[in-house]
Design brief:
- Helix content is 68%, strand content 7%.
- The chain is mostly helical and 147 residues long.
- The chain has a single domain (37-142), classed as Arc Repressor Mutant, subunit A.
- A two-stranded antiparallel ribbon has the order 1-2.
- The radius of gyration is 18 Å and the shape is globular.
- Residues 6-140 form the HTH marR-type domain.
- One of its GO terms (molecular function) is DNA-binding transcription factor activity.
- It comes from Parathalassolituus penaei.
């Protein structure tokens, strides 16, 4: 592939990611929510999969066990996440959102949907499906690669 277009693709993806993250961080500051980007991702994952484990979060996020343990500890200290023992495995704990964690997750889902809606404004359904397909293929290309 042409080096020039490769750089343009990289810059476009990085720029889009930066804009979306910046706007979500600003929204968090506006709402006076002290949740970092990775903590927010953890909240969303736990919200989508109540009863998940730290191990599941490690596998999903690609972060190491120590990083996830710190993130979960911070979320617990902020009373956004609750832990409950696993009934089948006494060594494991299950993660659930607290009421305030659920409220933050819901707020940010709404903001994320509005932001994505703004980003894809003017794209047809077919273009959105093509974009999703291409992004999925790019992610599969990078799965398992070492950067």
């Amino acid at each position: 592939m042409n080096k020039h277009i490769s750089q343009e693709i990289f810059d476009a993806i990085a720029g889009l990611n930066h804009q979306m993250r910046s706007r979500l961080h600003q929204a968090a500051r506006d709402k006076e929510v002290a949740v970092s980007g990775m903590e927010f991702r953890a909240l969303n994952f736990i919200g989508r999969k109540p009863g998940t484990t730290q191990r599941d979060l490690v596998q999903h996020s690609g972060r190491d066990k120590a990083q996830i343990a710190r993130i979960i500890n911070n979320l617990r200290q902020q009373e956004l996440v609750e832990t409950r023992p696993d009934e089948n495995d006494k060594r494991a704990t299950r993660l659930y959102l607290s009421a305030s964690g659920q409220a933050i997750s819901d707020d940010f889902k709404t903001m994320s949907q509005q932001l994505v809606g703004q980003a894809i404004e003017g794209l047809s359904t077919e273009e959105c499906q093509t974009l999703l397909s291409l992004l999925a293929r790019m992610n599969r290309n990078l799965d398992g690669s070492e950067a």
